[in-house]
Design goal:
This protein is α/β, with parallel strands linked by helices.
Length: 474
Amino acid sequence: MAGRVLSVASECVPFIKTGGLADVVGALPAALAPTGWDMRVLLPAYRKLLPLLDQMTPVRSDSSLFGGESRVYFGRIDGIDLLLLDAPHLFDRDGGPYSGPNGDWWDNPQRFAALSWVAAQIARDGIDGWKPDILHAHDWQAGFAPAYLRYGNASDVGSVLTIHNIAFQGWADVRLMSDLRLPADQFHPDGLEYYGNLSSLKAGLVTADKITTVSPTYAEELMRPEFGMGLQGVIAARAGDVSGILNGVDTTVWNPEAEDHPFSAKSLSGKAKARKALCDEFGLDVPGPLAIVVSRLTDQKGIDLLPEAIPAFVAAGGGVAILGSGDPALESAMRGLAAFHPGRVGLRIGYDEALSHRMFAGADAVLVPSRFEPCGLTQMYGLRYGTLPVVAATGGLADTVIGVSPATLAAGSATGIVFHPTDAISLRQALAKLVSLYADQKTWVRLQKNAMAHPVDWQASASAYAALYAGIVR
């Protein structure tokens, strides 16, 4: 066995999910197993997870964890070695992981500091005969964990912090220093101080042994003001410890050969059937390329560019099926697009996992015009299904899609369309290119097969994490 890793996060598929963080945390244990690394995942026991405790064994207790009693339970659930932190005063609530009916929970700093504190204690002392070599913290929710480890002088455990999205930084008022069990002498610009207050993400950035992001390009972007969102200087100062490791997708879950109309790169006939079924489901009749948008409807995702770019695409024979929810103004704009282009633009507000599978199976292209995208899984699903990604040249989108150009077409390496800058003009031009490529079916099929041959699984990324861990084992 290469070693042991405690992965601490606020989300993990299949237990709790609000975004891509959960997919990564859930996929890593199985991905790492062939490399010899044994990973356990620590999550909060949110109300919806409490029934799992009946299948688990209590392995640790604390009579005073940030305002109340707590227990840690362990069990192997759905193939994952899972640790759940049961602290009812912090996590037994209606609502989501971070917010309730009236917005964000007022005590989020304490809630996730408690998660981080327990993670550091487990890393330092071990639990039920198991002691990790590495503590792997994910995003701001676990950002204090490397800090507690460092300030507690647990020098025999290495630590990694992964930034999945730097837009969320775990802000906390400086008056909470003592409540959060943080040392007052570390409140300075090179330590915990962050614009006069605290940030759990910054705390992790200055104390973890290594920092990773979820794509190499995003690692470079984070050192620039337009992407670093106030933390670019902190990250640049630690540039030698920063690396980008791409996420992967679960290719057993996202498998075109397991869909309602199975197909593969060798035989795409099932994809044509899936396209017809998708058009029927959305009430569409599209002579040209059928594109999909499966996304949160936010400006970050570039959804505001669609009303200006889609009409010309529709006029050229294209069509779009949209699945998502988010900003009410953008939801309204998408309704307007669908109403103005009946039979060419279809819309479902909300999220439906099964429908998303049918959309990737049946579509010709997937649009991902994000202004920033740490890694992105959507374009990888597109590659897997021969649904050509049309993406902005940022973050993981730039790292995973090989844009069509005379050179890449001649080399037979192109897998999608990459555009820059991220504005409506560039997106409109990219969609015009999509129409042109689709009209040349010989080239189009070659692009589809290129996309489906592109590796999107976890194998290379798991090896990179294993090498990273090996380099910091004490």
